[in-house]
Amino acid sequence: MNKSILILLFILSLNSSYSQDTIVYFSDAIKQNITPYKKASNKAYESNNIEEGKMLFDSLVKTKLVGTKFDDFNLKVYKDKNIKINRINKPIFIITYAAWCVIPKGEIPALNILAKEHSSDMQFIVVFWDKKTDLKNIANKFNSNIKVCYANEYYAKDSHIVATIKHTLGFPTSIFIDENKNVVSIKHFENKTKLKTPIKEAIITSYNYFSKDINENLVNSLSQNKSFTIN
């Protein structure tokens, strides 16, 4: 079957579009639309059709998740006080990892540089789907401008965020939220830096990738907020 037809059938299987006046929370949009997505996605990956799987994910994000209100998750911060999403009064850039996954060369230094550059206009948050003890060898590699958080099925209070994000979106994933807590962008990112790449080159590659994504999202969030104000 033609890819475009498959994507169209998938979109039609999702719940109908929400009214502009309706506040839809991110977790509710996930619950309402994840079943058809998983069904179509599983078929794509079973057929080893990686590109189709990526297109299905992008369709879910663009048609059902972008524009939703991000939940007021309570995040446990490594060696610091817990934070709640709604208490952060600026755009948020969230990246999810797992401690057992090897983070590509140059990625952490690049994020540290960007977090320092954007310390006044946005908050960087890294969420590891692990227990606190799993972070002892990696948390300190991030600078103080990045909130290093963790969530795991082991902790009873983490069931909501784990089910909503980890078990539906997978990882590594980036989520950009504007200052009003509206979802602007969700992406599966893939760093293709080779192991033998010189560290300076690896940092530059990661920096350019994330910088482009962040700046585009900042522009999009500003334009969305302006249009909302005009309406």
Describe the SSE topology.
Elements: H1 3-13, H2 26-46, H3 50-65, E1 74-77, E2 83-84, E3 92-97, H4 107-117, E4 123-128, E5 146-150, H5 159-169, E6 173-177, E7 183-188, H6 199-230
Parallel strand pairs: 3-4, 4-5
Antiparallel strand pairs: 1-2, 1-5, 3-6, 6-7
Helix pairs in contact: 1-3, 2-3, 4-6
What does this molecule look like?
With 231 residues, the chain is of the alpha/beta class. It contains six helices and seven strands. A seven-stranded mixed beta sheet has the order 2-1-5-4-3-6-7. The chain is globular and about 40 Å long.
Uncertain residue segments? 227-231
CATH architecture term of the largest domain: 3-Layer(aba) Sandwich
Q: What average pLDDT do the residues reach?
A: 88
Query: What series of H and E elements makes up the topology?
Result: HHHEEEHEEHEEH
What percent of the residues sit in helical stretches (DSSP H or I)?
A: 40-55%
Q: How many strand units?
A: 7
The CATH class of the largest domain turns out to be Alpha Beta
Strand order of the largest sheet: 2-1-5-4-3-6-7
Shape: globular
First and last CA, distance: 41 Å
Summarize the structure.
It is built from six helices and seven strands; from the N terminus they run H-H-H-E-E-E-H-E-E-H-E-E-H. The chain is an alpha/beta fold and 231 residues long. Strand 3 (92-97), helix 4 and strand 4 form a beta-alpha-beta unit.
Main attributes?
single chain; 231 residues; alpha/beta; Glutaredoxin; 2 domains; seven-stranded mixed sheet; 7 strands; 44% helix; globular; disordered C terminus
